[in-house]
Request: fold
Amino acid sequence: MTTTIKTLCHDPKDWHMWEVGLPQLAFQNDYLLDAVFAMTCLHRGSLHPLNKSYWLRSAVQYQSRALPMFYKVLDNVNEETCHAAFAFSLLTSMVEIAMPQTDYDPIEHLVGLRSYFRGSATLWLTMVDHLRYGPMNPFFKPKTILWEYDPEIRKSFHDRLTDLYDIVAGSPDVKIFNETIDLLIRLFHDSPYSIMVFSLFVGPDFFHLVCQREPLAVLIYVYVGVLFHNVNIWWGEGVGERIVNGLSLPAELLENNPKCASALLWAQQQVKKRPEPDKVLFWRIFNAKQPNETVEDLLHPDDNLHSLRSNNPSTVTTPSAYLRNGLTKD
Reply:
């Protein structure tokens, strides 16, 4: 368990939270302990491919046992129970990403992750005043580390992302697409791990278009897959490749729009490569002490979660509803 937890931390300020604070919460809350065990099983499966099916079954059992207990807590989250609930929401987001899925559909997965992450954000926004002074306190402190890419990787990816502006220029939904491309570039330059929360921060209009499988929205989501592919963490392995290979564009569009065809081909070529950690993460700068952007800073202006911090929560779905929707298996 300790070995697994150490793989989840990437900023020195969070070490104590992951190695001490979260385990202490887990030993006090059975549902959180089961989530830790589920993550540990998935980690073991990644380390021992020959026994992967056994560890996967064990992870599913622990996760299935944790969820009913967690739902009961969600029905009445308060200043005492919010710390373990928030820790569970963070940990289980990783479990959901790491868990292999049969009949994988990238867009259905996006829908599930968005609903789940919105539950986590709702917990954050409604209980932040208590969470700041509990075991999860380091999560709210400024980053002590900045990530820098190898210059070649940074230029290549930045140029490809900015090329998307030209591709969508003639679309009636160009404003929506440009906002989403802005977000992708922002997440890319923040850190390789930031793409993990794309489903939370993307605007509702783009989310609607990609769910309708609008071709240009799908192409932008393909690029999300490319950025996922460069995340060098075991629990995100294969996600980017599944996103890119699981999406397609109409043949007519590819024939009539060489830029679209080139963009899709580049993405498909990228996910065939193995990530190169030494190039993706060229160096880390400690003690950067940059102010953290909050959930409120990154949420799209049209997102109704903003009303939680404006003392008008009546229009917002509860954490329980979001998390139930995101975690319920068909």
In short: Residues 281-289, 306-330 have pLDDT under 50 and may be disordered.
